[in-house]
Amino acid sequence: xxxxxxxxxxxxxxxxxxxSATSANETPALKAKAQKxxxxxxxxxxxxxxxxxxxxxxxxxxCYHHIKDIKPTDGPMTKxxxxxxxxFAEQMKTLKDSGYHTILPDQLxxxxxxxxxxxxxxxxxxxxxxxxxxxxxxxxxxxKYGFKGVFFxxxxxxxxxxxxxxxxxxxxxxxxxxxxxxxxxxxxxxxxQGDDWKIQLxxxxxxxxxxxxxxxxxxxxxxxxxxxxxxxxxxxxxYKMAFSxxxxxxxxxPLYTVRRMIVAGQWSxxxxxxxxxxxxxxD
Length: 283
Description:
The protein is α/β, with parallel strands linked by helices.
């Protein structure tokens, strides 16, 4: 019993001495450094304002539709919105060889809003309209280079011929891609009124979430067209960010006008890289 009491007293003395030594070592410089770390951590929790978001360097966002061979009888729009599998593979290899890293919308959001770090040379690969070739061709090519993408789903097309099935988009999600909403049937957001907001924004979000089991926090405007009336409706529906096309971002709501660039089927791979640098002002 006496030995235990002596041991406890000695331990208490040693602990007190160590604590005192630690306190003595907390120099003003160390305290200042700790305070800076604390302030930086707290700052990351504070959302950036519109001016700060607009000032951040833009991340290139590619927009693809059809990944298929073009027929001689195809019209100009089909040729513009279709990238051949061979050209798509060449573009992915060039991006990889050039040191680009794919990121997902969550990473872009945290970068824009909280200043979170991104990998070097980040890029987003996005796909609209639910075409089956995005799963069978595009993603199989992307996997070779360790790339991930975001797939914006037009829910009316699910499980129809030539479009992705629910099982396929669940697979995309399970394999680490983002699966998000692109309206029910691709009607222009600028023409919505009444129940359109529920049909085109709320219900597709719920449908996608029901399939993937994950939040669908991001939205892509059909035809890239938006108006200010859409912003409060998007927020009300639970969307954190929305993607347009190459138009100028809104000065007050940049998160709901994130720019994308359609990759035209007529462009060569060097042309795609030039267009990316010009559109997003990246090196």
